[in-house]
Structure formats: structure tokens, C-alpha cells
Amino acid sequence: SVRWNLSAGAARPNPQGSFRYSSINVTQAYLLRSTEPVEIGGKLRAALNGLSFSSPETPLRLADAYGVEGAYTLDFPERPDPAARPRVARSVINGTYRGFMELIFQNNDTRMQSYHVDGYAVFVVGMDYGEWTEASRGTYNKGDSVARSTVQVYPGAWTAVLVSLDNVGFWNVRSQKLDSWYLGQEVYVRVVNPEDGANKTEMAVPHNALYCGQLHKYQKEQTPHHKTAAAVRPLAAQRQIVALVMLVVGALVFAS
């Protein structure tokens, strides 16, 4: 397996390798099972734990900031329910701020999968063929696993990662196979600081944010990029260069 050389004097996600992830209590654990695409409501869909994500009209983070109800639900299952029928949903994982989450990606598809976690670097602590069980934790690398944001999951196998939820926001966990992602194989993790009523832990909404859905009334008129000063300046410089080149070429022609 790929491991971190902790004896080398190199940069790491934590000062001097002091982040002892094996000694931190796991506060949440989710087993995310993927299967071959299935037909839901007459359309081909891909899912995690039987839920195929459908993007809402109102962006999730803006819906949260403005108190829009019904944009999503906080009931994503910790384990797949074998008796439940696959369905389209907007179910979100309710992450605990400064908690320590375990994510197990179980690939029951026949194709290689890669999964990406936005907003974080995760510790890749284990992978193996077959079905993940509670006993699989005994095989985890608890000392020198690598940190990354994208992990591979082989067909008929699993990959386990650990992540410290210290970054506030709505973070996407998705399949990196574009067809699976397009068909709904993704989920969001909501991380909110409950002690930060003024929302100082998170960056403010950008001035050029796009408001849509139930928040379209907040949308400000925006200048198309090609009409902004930032776009005009390079264009003017390009014209000057072209004119200069033409003058030089003309001078050389007449001189000859």
C-alpha cells in the first residue's frame, strides 16, 4: 500500500506529523455502497445507498443561508438498506463540526470507481476486496496513511477513509466517473458551526453569486465578462501588438 514517510523532513497536512488520526474517536461512520446503474422512474440512474441525488433549483448552501425549506433533507442513511427500492432524493449527510468521520466506499459495480471529497484531504486507511464488515477496521493503517482528496475503489472491493470535519460548508462527495456523477452518484456533507451565529467561520457569499430557484429575487444584474474592463484591457493590448507587427513587416518589405 502507499504510505507516508514520516521520518522524512517534508511538508505534511499537520505540523511535524503531530496529527495522530488513529487516536481520535470516530464520531460518525457512513458506508456508501455503489451498484450498477438502475432504472428509476423510467430513467437510468446511479446511486449511493440506493439514493440517486437530484440537484435542487435553489443551491444547497444558499438555501441553508436564507432558510429555504424543502431544498434538501438531512436523512441520508448510514448504511444501505437492502430492502429499500432505489429512488431519487435530495438527502444530505449531516456532518458534525469538528467531528471525525469515517467513510467506507463499497463498490458493488463491475467497473473501477474513483470518489472525490470536496473541501478536505482524507486519510486513506484501508482497502480490500469483498464486503466491508466491522472486523475490517482491524486491517486499517493507523500510523502512516497518505492524505488525498480522491480515492480509487476496485470492482467488488472497498476503500475506507477518515476525515476531520473542520471546514464549514456544503461539501460534495461524488463519483469521478462522469457518467455515474451525471446519473446521480453523489451526496453532500453539511458542516455547520453551531456556536457561530454570525457565521464568522465561513467566507461570506461572493458579490457575484448566482441566485436562482426560490432566491432568484436576490439576483443582481451582472456585466458579461467580455464587456468588463478586465476583458477589454488584454484585447486592446493584442490590437497594439498586431499593429506593431504589421508596421515591422511593412518596413521590412519596403526596405527590401
Descriptive account of the structure:
A hairpin with a 2-residue loop joins strand 2 and strand 3 (43-45). The protein has helices spanning 60-65, 178-182, 229-255, and strands at residues 28-34, 38-40, 43-45, 51-53, 87-89, 93-96, 100-107, 113-117, 122-129, 147-148, 150-153, 157-164, 169-175, 186-192. With 256 residues, the chain is α+β, with helices and mostly antiparallel strands. The protein has 2 domains: 15-210, Immunoglobulin-like (Sandwich); 225-255. The chain has a 5-stranded mixed β-sheet, with no helix packed on it.
The end-to-end distance, rounded to whole angstroms, is: 68 Å
Number of strands: 14
**Main sheet specs:** 5 strands, mixed
CATH superfamily grouping of the largest domain: Cupredoxins -  blue copper proteins
Structural domain count: 2
Instruction: Quickly give the structural class.
Output: alpha+beta
Sheet-strand content, in percent, reads: 25-35%
Low-confidence stretches: none
Name the helicity range.
Answer: 10-25%
Number of helices: 3
Strand ordering within the main sheet: 1-7-12-9-10
Using the alpha-carbon principal axes, give the shape: extended
Radius of gyration, whole Å: 24 Å
What CATH first level of the largest domain would be assigned? Mainly Beta
What is the H/E order?
EEEEHEEEEEEEEEHEH
Would you tell me which CATH topology of the largest domain applies?
Immunoglobulin-like
**CATH architecture title of the largest domain:** Sandwich
Pfam families: Cu-oxidase_2 (PF07731)
Family: Belongs to the multicopper oxidase family.
GO molecular function: copper ion binding; oxidoreductase activity
Domain Plastocyanin-like: 61-195
